Amino acid sequence: MPDRIRLDGRVAVVTGAAGFIGRATAKLLADRGARIVAVDRREADLKTAIVDLPASAEALAIAADVTSEDEVKDYVRASVDRFGKIDVFYNNAGIEGDVRKITDYPLESFRRVLDVNVIGVFLGMKHVLPVMLARNKGSIINTASIAGLLGTPEVAVYSASKHAVIGLTKSAAIECSGTGVRVNCVCPGLIESRMLSAIVNGRNGGKAPIPNEKLAERIPARRLGDPSEVASIVAFLASDEASYVSGSAYTVDGGRVAS
Questions:
Q1: Where are the alpha helices (DSSP H) in the chain?
Q2: Along the chain (259 residues), what's the average pLDDT of each consecutive run of 10 residues?
């Protein structure tokens, strides 16, 4: 009987691949047999991100800005030119933006967050979906956040962008009804990462950093999450084990939203 969590022979495109969650996910997908296309704006960080991938991943690193439609077209085309298909798309690139109240939020910063977190996700789906639909097979996983399920003071714009990602995910899943293409999203909670540190320090007004133990007090699991724990859910959604899952938003938050 085949191992349904394996991804042998599949091609996985990961955006935001140089970040904590992107790197952990690319590594896990590769360990399960996928060939990896790693996409990020920072070429030097990309090279570091793929250095530990197994040779079987045949890793292809592409520097691209997810807010540029031409550059999105280019990374999709390069993936197909190299491997002939895209089976898994982890649409993960995102930024936190400024940590400010709505009344103090610069319009330029607002637009930048929406450009990366919403338009970037939209453009990725717009150009990857035709590749998958042509083969009637594929799994798209978008990165949302528990901030897309809750109101979040001082990161309202980030929260709004992640609400939009969940809406895009559900709508795309319905548009793909009756095909072999599935669309889901993950909603990480407080995960140890650069982004979490930036948000926490921003909300702390430049005072002494809040220790992880203090942050964990608001989480039922009483600890922060590890990027690998988000990667595990992405890998599940990419696999045949999730063959009947589409349009879902999976929280990875130690019970935070449930509390």
A1: 20-31, 43-50, 69-83, 107-114, 120-135, 156-175, 194-203, 212-215, 227-238
A2: 87 97 97 98 91 96 98 98 98 93 96 98 98 98 97 93 98 98 96 65 58 76 93 98 98 92
The CA dihedral of 177, 180, 183, 188, to the nearest 10 degrees, is 140
Residues that are catalytic: 158
Distances in Å between the Cα of 96 and the Cα atoms of 70, 182, 212 are: 24, 27, 19
What is the predicted pLDDT for the residue at 193?
A: 62
pTM exceeds 0.85, yes or no: yes
Show the domains of the chain with their CATH numbers.
11-191+226-249 (3.40.50.720)
Helix (H, G, I), strand (E, B) or coil at 192: coil
Positive or negative, the CA dihedral 239, 240, 243, 245 is negative
